[in-house]
Amino acid sequence: MDQLLLILLNGLVYGLLLFMLSSGLTLIVGMMGVLNFAHASFYMLGAYVAFSISTLMNFWVALIVAPLVVGALGALVEQYGLRAVHKHGHLAELLFTFGLAMIIGEVIQLIWGRWPVAYRVPESLDFPLFSIGGTAYPAYRMFMMGVSLFMFVVLYATLARTRLGLVVRAALTHPDMVAMLGHNVPRVFTMVFAGGCALAGLAGVIAGNAYQTDPGMALALGAIVFAVVVMGGLGSISGALIASLIIGLVQTVSIGLDMKLSTALGRIGLHVDGITALSDVWDISINRAAPVVPFLLLVIILAINPRGLAGSRSS
Amino acid sequence: MRTISHTLPWVIAVVLVLVAPHVFGSGFSISLLCRMAIAAVFALSFNMLMGQGGMMDFGHAVYLGLGGFLAMHVMRAADAGWWIPTPALPIVGAFGGVVAAGLGGLVVSRSTRTAFAMITMGLAEAIVALVLMLPRLFGGEEGINADRSGGPPIFGFDFGSPLEAYYVIAFWALAAAGLMFLFTRTPLGRLSNAVRDNAERVGFLGYNPGRVRYFVYMFSGLFAGLAGGLQAINDEIITSANIGSNAAGAVLLMTFIGGVGTFAGPVVGAVVVTLMQMALGTVTEAWQLYNGLIFIVMVLWAPGGISGIILAHAPLVRSGQARRLVPSYLTVLPGFVAALLGTIGLSENAYRLQSIRGGSPPGGSIFGIPSDPQTMTPWLVSLALTAVGLWLVARTAPRARAAWLEIAGGTQA
After folding, report:
1. Quick one: closest CA in B to A33, which residue?
2. How high is the ipTM of this complex?
3. pLDDT (tens digit, 9 = 90+) per residue, B273-318?
4. Residues of A in contact with B295 (CB under 8 A)
5. Do the Cβ atoms of A96 and B289 come within 8 Å?
């Protein structure tokens, strides 16, 4: 029971982190139709910038400044890159972000090296907050959860309660109409793109020290964030939240289960040991299968509904 | 006349393929030629989806990889004594590719555009993860290998030597390219163009766009699998790296740099990118960075790729008016060269600095010019070159573009 609670907590922290990335990406995809391949690269950039700032000054400065830096970079990319390729169509935009992801990945390796950097949890938060069944739970994880929830509330309030949010939501489905009504839609695009990048950067700031800051972190998380966004339905914030939590929990649970697939199936009454042709499959322990879980979930959900959990339009 | 202009490129291609290994006979060039041929088939199969069908497949390497794995298992069986000649292995690869794409297509062909791209990526990630989880079938990280000369000899050839393998690969590459060209002429090929341009209208005409996408996806998987079979013959090893996102990114790069708008574009891209990869890979560490930069520059300023640039100028060359463009193009050149040299200087110094920090001896040189990244001079020179070059390009490019528009507009009118 305690074990389960621990796994649930970790899954929640991870799921909320995924949501910080996917909420920005789903807005960008839904609104501008740009499949931003570099989104996870901005997450990685956030972690590295935060590492540099926190070694120069401290973590708290990094927490504020790094997302702003990443957001500003995002605004520049939108203004001078994406807008220039926009006239060549969606494919060109998508390829542009693809090239951008390659360049960000290389530049990060040039500046900070090819190996993980020592980006650590700040000392003021580096203590066990409480213990569950003898396992100490780090305070920093709770801090991550707090930041994520705070961002969620801010994002929700902005989208649902402000005039800007109204315009953004309208531009999600009817960009031309919103422009007709006199709103500066390109500027809204820039703001959404910058905001999404800043959110990704913030996720990098708080996750880079809890997990690991290395040049592979964008690739590892990028595909999962994509899966979350598609699963939730393009452009749907609530869908992204549900999908983030589902994937976060399912993946954390499967990592925690050190059990062979055949044993797990045996528990629910399916005895498959006799089918030796597939013994390779039955011998997989569930925690090793964890990487494949988000994508299998994605395929299953899309087979049921091609628009994802809460998508209003399919492309 | 029409038939001549259609068959002539193919005749030239056949002659080139036959002659090339005797002109460039070294082991390095033959392996380079084999890689080009395989990349060309793969890029053409990719462009069946991207250029002709409007489907951005981010997991296309899966079909090359799965076809390659199947061909490799059959090659192992041939080594163990089954009567399966090596030249038949690409058929096995194609079979693996088409079966895999037939299954994968069930999931992906229902969505379009952005959603399609994301789902193919998710599917590919899932398959890569699965491949790594089934070591008995796919050999884990090391992959599986076999000996291509282990099969039964045909007319005394065992296909062990690089030249014999080259001719097998070249034959299949030409055959596959020809079949893919014929595919564009079939009703299904035409329909895939129509689905790309306006799926809704195709639906109203009584065709099911989803089904058209599904069949095109299967054919594309078939040729990707064939390329996988060729790769199995060439490398005699297939690993999970052949399936993953790097391989999928490479084919995207080739196809785009060559140009998606024409049939031959991907072939041009495959040749150019393979050549650059092999040539630059030996002289610079910064290959990945250049890759990304070339890609971004192409997307921004030449979205039609190399073949797009050629197509834009071919009528001018034919009508003899291209000469008038030369002066205005030449004015852009100095700025372009300066910016290029400056960028190379900055990147090479950065990579050098990184390896010095990593413990290699200090100092260094670029193009034979001594350049120590721990001093200020190389950085300032490179930065100045880049800045001045970009400024010059920004000043001269509009005039060159205007000159092109004027002359090209003149020929069309």
Report:
1. B114
2. 0.78
3. 888 888 777 777 777 788 888 888 888 888 888 888 888 888 778 8
4. 95, 98-99, 102
5. no
